[in-house]
């Protein structure tokens, strides 16, 4: 079957389910988080129950992509009313189907209740987590079945590709991208249109279009979610890029740890080929483009463009000097346009809705200079010490405070906010007094962090900033390729110094040496991974130097986290002798009689923190 | 290649566009420390010692000079305080990794560093400069070595740490290793001593194709071997570094004949390939195929002779048919190929590689460049020569072509004397060429 632009695309909308006239759609989340929490079992149970009440012709169960509210999964949204259910389990299903689907009475106990409030919020659109979000890259989130190309098409999918192929010259597409101010969502923030232009003008044939889906930041899963939830938006973006730069070969580089994304991507490519949206002579316009998948083995460094291409060529995934750019000499030495998943997902929308609309969202002015601002939205994975963890898409220019407190619901357990780390392992830490910082590429860089691919880790008063820096540096020591001296030896030494500081072994002068080493690693590393790796250290030194000094000079960890620098004791005034801690202590280090204050034997104590966790009276003191 | 003008430490210099700037910096006599750089290998840019400051347009940045390409208007500063500070820091990092290595101590001392402020733990003599890995891959062509692991666990080794047949014990890795950490050659020779006996004990230079098959009488103790010493003396370096078997490209086919794009051709069907140390000459595939099974060669010049382009270089004969091949360039003879005297058929087997004739020091490379047929034109030239040959063979009464119009193998054996003379005159040493 092949599709011609305009007429057929519209016709297909009616074939794709809308005309079947279901009374109710149960949009069950099929993202990796919810699938792990059992959403496929729930789907079977739902279908079974619906069958029982003879509702199968009236109510349809749809597996959607990730909704973002992963901590509360499995999640289901009942359309057309937009009723939001969370923490579903198979045993809830019979009651839910009987009450809501059969009798029309939504079930309150499965709905969302905001913290500190008593009444439920039934509708998805009223929940704080969703309210301030603006969905562009995730425009089809929770609305379509990602495994059905018809549903993507029904939501105006592939219309943008039809438009560029029939109405626009490649140069016009590039001009449009430059004017839109779209900047690379993989972290670098390089203007997408400028990259396309350079690639188009670079001599050499064939040209390649590659999608970087090698997302490797700990705790970040923006790209996975887009591919799982709306794979065709990425394929369409790549096809438009291919037309613009003059390529007919595309690759998606995706890590093999993403089995669900991989499966859906494979299906999407197969479906697009079947519909003639990939392959030869697309839309009868003489444009050929096909996409193949290259599966990465999961090295963090392979997200770096030259390492990614080396890996695709079958060589070890190591970066090379980028004095010669990959847009000119990339994959197999040919001009190669590499963009991130989220960047491609934005492209069809810009083509369809126009530059004026896109530039109305975001910061700065890009009419003269594509670096002049940050336009559109950014997807963040909001994790750490925040109530609503999950995936959020927000307009550029929103403040950190809005993201963390309005969308994220603030810090749980009555703790105090301390800092937020953005930009993945090689990003920086931003302190409380910068919470009103508008989030965009340039502002984050200015304060010593970066946009990165969109990781956002919230930390509270219990987090030690030296320990945080140590954690990220240790991650990078293990994930750096080891090719260049600063990246290998420099990071190894930085890690040793940080571990010494956390262990209370560091000598006076270590902070100066640490800074000096970080500066050399920043300036002299071979690739951007090495160049940005010291960011967690430099930014924590910049904003939390007092914590470092407390570790070094007073051998004290202010957050009470670094084991060698703390002791556990019990406040005799608070302890009521309940024996709970003594029973749970794995070292039997707690002595005490019933109803009398307990004592911790510090020689036996391994500082595991179990006593503090189990104590109901907050009597365990960490100093 | 076009020339560009740059400014190095305040002095204007001209350089070839996109050529690494280290070359121009060193040409000025400025000292820049390097550990992973070696002329003749692709720049690698990992030791970062050669870092310099470059201003291009409005932007000033630090780059590694070994691989940063020259461009018009670059302003280069090789010894700013910032640059030196970073070099010193890197020397300290190296010293913490390899405190016992002399080369590291020297580089550090040259920057005023004698002691590292870092904690010394888990030391290694290998500085991971990659020279061994790259020489084995790029110059020897054996690719026996590689990097294993990543990050701080990176080490040099053979795949799965297994002693490999790919290693030919040439010793190039040991020869280029700046720290003495590389032991691959010794390991392979130990294995040979253990596993090989009698005629299997083939000399490593024979395995490299530098001499004809020779059995080692010396229990692979190359350090005390005369052949070894002689070859080192002749080439003035490790012989494999001079001959670079790994750099040979694959030939491409033009009609019935093959060409290699990395060299220039002489109208008399000899070739010249220029490297940094010398120029090597040989006969091309056209000549080899037309002459057929070569049974004897006689060199017409000896090491030390000065010859001119078009002078006779080699007499070859095949079953009574004789031909003289001419020198493609003028210059002084450095060596003749020792393997050819024992085994002339090497010219047939491998005319572009092991069947080379002479290495020379050219007198006038510029003149050679302008008179020889460059790789771009060689396709067309070979095609024309091929058409010419076929027209002669079709005219002749000898059976040289099969029914399908293909060249018969070793067809020259069947040629009548006058046809043979017509061919040698037209293609190799005749008439207009002298």
Summarize the structure.
The complex is a heterodimer of chains A (623) and B (434). With 623 residues, chain A is an alpha/beta fold.
Please outline the helices and strands.
The complex is a heterodimer of chains A (623) and B (434).
Chain A: H1 7-15, E1 24-29, H2 32-36, H3 39-52, E2 59-64, E3 76-79, E4 83-85, H4 93-102, H5 128-131, H6 149-154, H7 159-167, H8 170-180, H9 192-201, E5 208-213, H10 222-229, H11 231-245, E6 249-255, H12 259-274, E7 279-282, E8 287-296, H13 305-312, E9 336-340, H14 341-359, E10 362-364, E11 373-375, E12 377-384, E13 390-395, H15 400-407, E14 417-422, E15 428-431, H16 441-446, E16 455-460, H17 465-479, H18 485-503, H19 510-524, H20 528-532, H21 535-543, H22 545-553, E17 568-570, H23 580-584, E18 590-591, E19 599-600, H24 610-614, E20 620-622
Parallel strand pairs in A: 1-2, 5-6, 5-9, 6-8, 12-16
Antiparallel strand pairs in A: 1-3, 3-4, 7-8, 10-11, 12-13, 14-15, 14-16, 17-20, 18-19
Chain B: E1 3-8, E2 11-16, H1 21-27, E3 51-56, E4 59-64, E5 75-77, H2 81-97, H3 102-110, H4 131-140, E6 146-148, E7 155-157, H5 172-176, H6 184-195, H7 204-207, H8 226-235, H9 239-243, E8 252-254, E9 257-259, E10 264-265, E11 270-274, E12 279-283, H10 285-291, E13 296-299, E14 306-307, E15 312-318, E16 321-326, E17 331-336, H11 338-342, H12 346-349, E18 358-362, H13 365-371, H14 375-395, H15 417-427
Parallel strand pairs in B: 1-5
Antiparallel strand pairs in B: 1-2, 3-4, 3-5, 6-7, 8-9, 10-11, 11-12, 12-18, 13-15, 14-17, 15-16, 17-18
Distance between the termini of chain A: 71 Å
Total number of strands of chain A: 20
Query: The CATH topology of the largest domain in chain B is what?
Result: OB fold (Dihydrolipoamide Acetyltransferase, E2P)
CATH architectural grouping of the largest domain in chain A: 3-Layer(aba) Sandwich
% residues in beta strands of chain A: 15-25%
